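Moderator note: this is an archived Q&A kept for reference. The question asked for a predicted structure of one protein chain; the sequence and the answer are reproduced below.
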Amino acid sequence: MDSTESFLKTVLERVRGYLDDADFEAKYNDQYLLQHIIMPSIVDVQARLVLNADNPVVNRFNVSLVAQQECYTLPPCVGEVLRVCKFGDNNQDDGVPTEDYKPRGMFSVGGPIWSLEGNMLCFKPYPTNAEDVTVLYISNGDMRPHYYDHSGATNVNKGYLTTTSTFKLSDTPTLGLLDKRPHSYVGSVLRLYGSTTHEERIISAYDVATRVATVKRPFTLTAAFNYDYEVAPNNFQSLTEAVTLASAIKLGAWRKISQAHHTLLVEQYRMALKTITDNLANMQARTGKSWQKDTLDNPDWRP
């Protein structure tokens, strides 16, 4: 692992190790590799993992319906929509939906209720009143990861812990890109590198205008000064290795490596992907894999 313990820097170092080539070192700098090789590899790996993981992060996105308006734009990182529902007001919301909107087919006599069209959530019949609904979804990992090294500088606009639950991202990351799409970082991991401890939290909200990320659980770090930080996937060793090898395979195709070298990378990638898949798919060991019977979709269920 890189001495900074950064996920992105570690992946970069390992990719260079797997493809040890003097010309490669000179042609592709870290920023280029991150933008064109590592970013798509992160999405590739995360998309595979979320299908079987026991611990997917379930995100909330509130939609304010407007009378007679059919479609509403979803966040760019929506991978799977689990539910469109309604919760109680601020004084009554206990985390359990009070209303559930179940989609139907497009040829349903009463309309599909809601459907997905590209990056939009569409309602038919059209809403008749202004009301708020909530979309529960799992992220597909499609965001712009980045790392910021504050190098001792103090600036309230760059990598600044505004409260224990809110953090202002830098507009000029040291490595990677700042995502300028609304809500793009929701569900991603924000990792702060303190002087004596490193902490990571799940981002629950992201204001693209102010670059302020809100986390689901507050940091124990409290000093309101600048931190080195990273927005990236969880820093599991097996996940880091899977992303590294996926990246090395992509870059190897660019470099026209030998078939033997390519085969070796593919075998290592399969091993790393199997390890992280098994880890995440079996985290919840209390009930194991089973079908739930007491659900809203079971017509025979009675409380």
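Archived answer notes: The chain has three domains: 1-50+233-283, 58-139, 147-232.
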